[in-house]
Design brief:
Distance between the termini: 72 Å
Keywords: Hypusine, Protein biosynthesis
Radius of gyration: 21 Å
CATH class of the largest domain: Mainly Beta
Largest sheet: 5 strands, antiparallel
Strand order of the largest sheet: 9-8-7-10-11
Number of helices: 1
Protein name: Translation initiation factor 5A C-terminal domain-containing protein
CATH topology of the largest domain: OB fold (Dihydrolipoamide Acetyltransferase, E2P)
Structural class: mainly beta
CATH superfamily of the largest domain: Nucleic acid-binding proteins
Organism: Triticum turgidum subsp. durum (Durum wheat)
Oligomer: single chain
Number of strands: 11
GO molecular function, one term: RNA binding
InterPro entries: IF5A-like, IF5A-like_N, IF5A_C, NA-bd_OB-fold, Rib_uL2_dom2
């Protein structure tokens, strides 16, 4: 190989910080998160004081949708926990196909999120929007998945 040969490497790796970190199963807080089968899931708190950390019911990232999964961990077990971020956006519009248009802090729009499947949260968003209220939607994201998890009203509406 000569000094003039060039090598080009194509990186498929994600740049930046890791999307997960290790944590003891017994240290998972109420409403904490855990990764099972490469999916971020929400977990109720484990019970302490025995050789087995309780069987925990794992729910999809931010809402009580889909199905639950029960799993037990022997004490002490290290599990994978996702880095979770929460961002607030102002609601601009709701499309007929169930997507929301959100205003970011930089003034751009975010149009790739669907309305939540949780009936209570969905009702609050649709009713508030129909009433002309200014709404802020909280979006939780982990491992490339995003979900609307809360709504709050700002101002007095129109």
């Amino acid at each position: 190989m000569s000094d003039t040969d060039e090598h080009h490497f194509e990186s498929k790796a994600d740049s930046g910080a890791s999307k997960t970190y290790p944590q003891q199963a017994g240290a998972i807080r109420k409403g904490g998160h855990i990764v099972i089968k490469a999916r971020p899931l929400r977990s109720p708190p484990p019970r302490l004081g025995s050789m087995v950390t309780q069987s925990v019911t794992l729910l999809p990232l931010t809402s009580l949708m889909e199905r639950s999964l029960r799993i037990s961990f022997l004490h002490p077990t290290t599990v994978t926990v996702p880095h979770v971020d929460r961002q607030d956006y102002q609601l601009i519009d709701i499309t007929d196909d169930g997507y929301v248009s959100l205003l970011t802090e930089s003034g751009n729009t975010k149009d790739d999120l669907k309305l939540p499947t949780d009936d209570v949260l969905l009702g609050q968003i649709k009713t508030g929007f129909a009433d002309g209220k200014d709404l802020i939607l909280s979006v939780m994201s982990a491992m490339g998945e995003e979900q609307i998890c809360a709504v709050k009203e700002i101002g007095g509406g129109k």
